[in-house]
Amino acid sequence: MTHTEEEPMDAYHGGGDFGARMRDRLEEVQRANAGVLEEVAALLVERAVRGDGMVLVAGSGHSMIAVAEAFFRAGGLAPVKPLYDPELLPLHGAAAATAAERRSGLADRVLEGAGADARDLLFVFSTSGVNPYPVELAREARGRGLPVVAFTSRACAAAAPRRAGGTLAEEAGLVVDTLVDPGDAAYPQADPVTAPLSSLVNSYLWNLLLASVHDRVSKEGLEPPLWRSANMPGGDEANKRFFSRYGPRVPELG
Question: Membrane-crossing residues (predicted)?
Answer without folding.
Answer: none
